[in-house]
Structures are given as structure tokens and as C-alpha cells.
Amino acid sequence: MDRRMIIILLILFTTFTGFGMIIPTLPAAIRDAVGSEAAELHLGAMLSLYSLMSLIFSPLWGWTSDRFGRRPVILSGMIGFAVSFWLLAISGTSLGLMYASRVLGGMFSGAAIASSVAYVADITSEETRTKGMGFVGMAIGLGFIFGPAIGGIGTRVSPAFPFVLAALFSLAIAVVGAFVLPESLTPEERSRRGGAENVPRGAVWQGPMKVLFALSFLVTFTLAAVESTLVYFEGLKIGADEFQMGLMFAMIGVVGAIVQGGIVRRIPKGSETRAAEVGFILSAVGFVLITLSFSFWSATAFVSIFAIGNALQRPNITSLITQKTPAGLGVTSGVNSAMDSLGRILGPLIGSALYHWNVYVPYLAGAVISILAVLLIRFGLGADAENRTVAQSSGRLRT
Question: What Rg, from alpha-carbon coordinates, does the chain have?
Fold first, then answer.
């Protein structure tokens, strides 16, 4: 494997390990600060605020990485992440510091994550793009294996311990990257891409891009709704505690890493659309089964089915986005990250609201949305593929 790819995968792994530590630990920290009655609402608000900042800043980071290079943007993102985790570590019962941490983390998320995805797109060809995105997904999945487990177990040392580790991990990888990560764009490429290659500003939304960005939004929207409610749902449904939820989220990471590292990277160019479609179908099945959880192991199995679907969706859609964009890869990755952020804004808010209405509704609604995504693929991307085939056939006839 290319050394550059290894370094980027380590950056993504470290980032999502830190992010994964928060999932089982932040709800308890919020409960300690405000009590149990308003904890769910504050958790949803913090997750959404993080994503709002990412929505605003990700396209700006994308343009910056096109103009000035991926490397400085990625390293800035890791340093920003480290500071955000440190704020959580010292927050204690201060809601203000918790919110400040989520604001700062959201501001720098596009720098670290979207620019890393653009970096992978830079160093892979269209034929190897899905394989590269599969490795990206595997690194993220491994982060979700170790992150929640470390977070859940680390709280037994102290409530702040997981956040301190996350800050140290992020800072360490920034230092390593500063010494060994080369720039993926030449000065000529940075100058050309910074000028948007004379592509109109709205070109990033042209053709199939609208459908692909919508699908990217739906992938994150459904996942964020699960993340913001699952701890409370399984606590109510099967009596799961923080340690068990840490293990459950770790299992999701194992499944995601296996699927993306072992299956997605073997999907040939041209099959990405079908693979994403299968992923949404599996997610729909997983959503319905989650509502039937009756024990820790059944809940883990049902959530894993959802995770398999999500693992098939994300890297294939990301690969298609980077293959089909008429704009710069940095701008495109920034917009895609913004769609991801929009899903993380609306997912927790709507998921939490639906949960307060009826604890089963977020998951049943997720199943319906997943089926709608399948129809969007069939009638959106399917029509686009058919038009391209006709155009290619006409071109061969003219030749």
C-alpha cells in the first residue's frame, strides 16, 4: 500500500477513534450536568451544533485545500480536533465548555475529514477510487471499534479520561503528519484548482451530482438519528448500560471495517450504484429489526445488519461523487462534507423529536427513508446511467 495512503488512513482512524470515544460517554457527562430530563435534548443540540459548524466551514476548507494544498488543511484540522477534545476533558459539569468544544470540533471537522478524502481521491485513479474509499471506510470503521470501547472502558478510570486520550491521539497524529505526510497537489495543480479551472460555481451540482449529494445526506441523516437515540432506546428496551453500549458501537465498527476493507475494496468500477442500493435495502431491514431487540446480543446483531448496509452505502456513493464531479476535488469533498453535516444537524434533531413522540418511530422512519433512497437510485442514477450509455453508443456510431 502507498505510504501516503497509510498516513491518511492513520489520520482518519485517529480522528474517528476520538469521535467514537464521545458516543458512549457524552450522554453521561450531559446527564451529570443537567440531570436526566433534559439530557436527550442537549445531546441532540450538541451533535447538531457540531454539524452546523461543519456545514458552514467544510466548503471553505475544501476551497482552501484546492488552493493551498491538502496537507496544511489536514494538519490544521487535527490540531483543532485536539483542542476541542481537551475542552471536553476540562468541562466537568460546564455545559458552556461542552458546547464550545462541539463548536470548535465542527469547525475543524471539514479540514481533517473532507480534505483527507480529497487527498485519497488525488492519489487514486477512477479504476482504484472505490478501493481507496473502501480503505477510508475501513479506517473509519476501525476507529469506531476502538473509540467506543476505549470511551466506555475509560469512564471507569475517570469521566474525563476518554477525552484526554482523544486530545493526545489527535495531537500526536498531527505531529507525525507534519513530518511524514507529503502534499498531494503540485503548485501548478493548486493554482489551477484554486481558480476552479474556469468551472462555473454551480457546476458541482450539475448532472447526477444533485442525486449523489442527496444520497450522501440520507446516509448520514439515518445514521445520525440512530446515534442520537440508540443509547436511550436500548437502555429502555434491554437495560443496556454505558459499557454495553460501548461494546455495541465497537461491534458496529468491526462490521463496518470488515465490509469496507474486505468487500467494498473489491467492488469493480461500474458496480458502485448497485452496491449502494443493496446497502440501503439492508439498512431498512436493520432499522425494523432494531425495534424488536430483546437482549444485548439480539440488539447487537440487529444493529450490525444496519451497519452492513451503511458500510456499503457510504464509500460507494463517495467514490461516485469524486468520479463524476466537474469541479475540483477539494470543493466537491467540502460540499459532500457539508451534506454529511446537514444530515448530522437534522438527524439528531428529528430523531430525538420522534423519539420523544414514540421510541419506535425513529427506526421505522429510517426504514421508510432507506426504501425511498433505493427508489432515488433507481429513478435518479439509473436514468443518468442510461443517458450516458446512449450518449456513448451514439459516439461510437459517429466514429
Answer: 20
Distance CA 322, CA 316 (A): 10
Q: Please state, in angstroms and as integers, the Cα–Cα distance from residue 287 to each residue in 97, 109, 222, 263, 308, following that order.
A: 34, 28, 9, 22, 12
Residue at grid coordinates 495543480: 189
d(CA 92, CA 75): 28
Residue-wise DSSP of 303-331: HHHHHHHHHHHHHHHHHHHHHH-SS-HHH
Q: 67, 80 in Cβ contact below 8 A? A: no
DSSP string spanning 93-152?
Answer: T-HHHHHHHHHHHHHHHIIIIIHHHHHHHHHS-TTTHHHHHHHHHHHHHHHHHHHHHHHH
Is 263 buried (19+), middle (13-18) or exposed (0-12) by CB count in 10 A? Answer: middle
Residue of 246, 248, 252 whose CA lies nearest to 154: 246
Q: With contact defined as beta carbons under 8 Å apart, do 255 and 307 qualify?
A: yes
Cell reading at 324: 463524476
pLDDT of residue 34: 79
Placement of cell 477539494 in the chain: 330
Overall pTM > 0.90: no
- Please check whether residue 51 is in contact with residue 78, taking contact to mean a CB–CB distance below 8 angstroms: no
Cell numbers that stand for 18 in this block: 476520538
CA distances from 298 to 40, 248, 302 (A): 24, 11, 6
pLDDT along the chain (399 residues), means of 10: 85 82 79 77 80 85 85 92 91 87 87 86 84 84 76 80 87 89 78 53 76 91 85 88 78 79 80 91 95 92 91 88 80 84 83 89 94 90 50 38
Three-class SS state of 256:
helix
Residue in 225, 249, 270 with CA at minimum distance from that of residue 360: 225
In the three-class reduction of DSSP (H, G, I as helix; E, B as strand; rest coil), residue 238 is classed as coil
